Structure formats: C-alpha cells, structure tokens
Amino acid sequence: MQVVGTATRAYEQVLVSVEQYKAFRRDGFLHVPGLIAQAEVAQLARFTEDMMAGRCSLPGIPAPPADLDEAERRHFYERIHMPHRSSELAERFLLHPRVVDVLEALIGPDVLALQTMLFFKQPGQAGQGFHQDSYYIPTQPDSLIGAWIAIDAATQENGCLWMTPGSQFEPIYPDCDGASEQGDTLLDDIPAIQSASHPDPEVNTLANIALRYGNEIPVPAQPGDVIFFGGHIFHRSHRNQSARSRRAFVSHYCNARSRVPWNHGIPYAGEDEGAAANHVHILARGSTHLPYAQPNFGTPCAANMPRLYGERFDDQRTRSMMGDGNGFMVLVPHDEVIHDH
C-alpha cells in the first residue's frame, strides 16, 4: 500500500503516464511541460536577479564588485554549484515534491538528492559541449538522473539543451587527459576520450561518438518545464547568441540505495580513499539502508517526514511469492517472525 497524505501534502501528487515512462527509456530523457508553477519559477528568477545585482549573496560565493556596471554584473556569474546547502530556496527546488514524484516513478521508489546548479547564461555566455553526467557524478549501482528546470524560455538562439536519443545505452567513456578518474574500465574495447564538456567538437573527442548517431535534437522549454535525463545520454548546449537570458536550475539524483563516492570536491567520508559520501546527500523519497543527510532548512522530504514521503509499504514485514488457492503465485507477507528464517 502506498503511503498517502492528502491532508498534509502541499501539492497534488504527479502521476507519470505509461507513455512518459516508455519515452524516458526509449529516448533517454523526458520533457514534462509546466511541472513547476509560474509563481514559483518567478521566485527563482528574482533570486538570480538579486544575485547579479549584488542585492543578495551566498556564503562562499563572491558578490559582484560594486564598481561594475550593469552589463558586467549580469555576466559576473556563469553557474553556481550546490546552492541548496546555503539557500532555503534552492533546497526547496531540489526537494520539490512534483519533481521528486516524477523521479520516484522513473528511478524510485527510493530517491537521494545529490546536487544543485544554478545556470545564469546571459547573452554571449558559453554553452557546454558533449558530455555524460555520470562521468562527473558516479553512483554505484549506476542510477544517476538530472532534472533541468527552465527559468526562462530556452530556445535554440539562447542555448537550449540538445539531446542525442538512444545514446543513453552507451557506456561512460573515460577521459585520457586526467580530468577525471571516472568512466567504464571493464569493457575490452572502450576508447578513452579527451576534453569532455569542451564546447569545440574538434577538441572534445566525445563528439566523434555522439555525432555518429545523426539524430541530435534541440529541446526547447518554457519557464516551469522540467527536462529529466539519465546520466549516460550524450547532451550539450550552445552559446547564448540572443539578447535574452537562458537561466536554469539543475539538480541531480540517484536511487537512494546506490553508493555515491562523490561530494563536489569535498573529501569523502571515512579514512579509505573513495569512501562513500551518502551521508552528505538528502533522502528525498522512500527509504535506504545507507546513511543520508537532513535538509539544512527543513524542506519536507523522506529524511524528515518519513510517514509522508518514506517507505511505500504499510509495514516492514518480509514477503514471499507463494501459491494461492487457485494455484497462482502471489506476494504474501510473513505473519510470524519465525517465517523469516
């Protein structure tokens, strides 16, 4: 039985359709229009405007110097990593229940929230070349997924996302120039690539693999749209060549039962090199046998409201497949603890 809490949920639960579920697995991404309300997107827009104007700042992130003119202020930031650790607003969007509802259907029921990034992408600012997100954020087992929230309308002119459908089945290509130790190493014939994310396809040799598909497509989006995409799919964006901004709020998640040896440059937990950092990431939905963090600002999620967003079953009893009176196999909970042995 799924936990329900309509009396205390702040939002009506989002249900993913069968066609959407199939589209995500067929194409490697899923575009959900209007998932976030316009009033909420406006809060993100005001937040970025205040940062560019120097009216607010985040701990550890320098504010634009006072002597900059308006144009220089607007170009002071390109992206900010991990704002959810110091901003209540960013934490709220990382754990937004409508976003996590979709994630629960795609990779759940147990969802761990890992990362946030705020992209400013003002006119003239660069894009990011072909890359695979799981190259940067390893999860073991591999279950990474991103959620890209459009703050402004994203078009081909101002640098929307471009996806390569079908490439989600590719392995993670290792980088031979030492930029990362990630990448699949158990495959016999996997080539090493150079300069993942570099915008120039002549420099970024992952482009040689991505462009073989010949089906790269733009994914324009309106404010409040959310684009979900797996960690293996080849994707990129181009420079903003318009006179308008293309801001976006991007979060990453994985199945909460995956080990995550990643914490955005901060040393991992434990004395052994590569020990997992699950304890610094937030349990957004479901449950897990691994450690997890509480949200700094108390945003409702499975970590602090397990009765509402936690375990999907009504109890923790072990279940087994057993025959019913008609000879069909059914899932039956164990009535006595002795049956668990």
Structural class: alpha+beta
Largest sheet: 7 strands, antiparallel
Rg is: 21 Å
Count the strands?
13
Which oligomeric state applies? single chain
- Indicate the CATH architecture of the largest domain: Sandwich
The CATH fourth-level homologous superfamily of the largest domain: q2cbj1_9rhob like domain
Q: Based on CA inertia axes, which overall geometry fits?
A: globular
| SSE order | HEHHEHHEEHEEHEEEEEHEE
Beta-strand content estimate:
15-25%
Question: Alpha-carbon distance between the termini?
Answer: 24 Å
Average pLDDT metric: 90
Total individual domains: 2
Instruction: Enumerate how many helices there are, as a single number.
Output: 8
Determine and state the CATH class of the largest domain. Mainly Beta
Q: Helical content, roughly?
A: 10-25%
Residue windows where pLDDT falls under 50 for at least 5 positions:
1-7, 267-271
The CATH topology of the largest domain is given as: Jelly Rolls
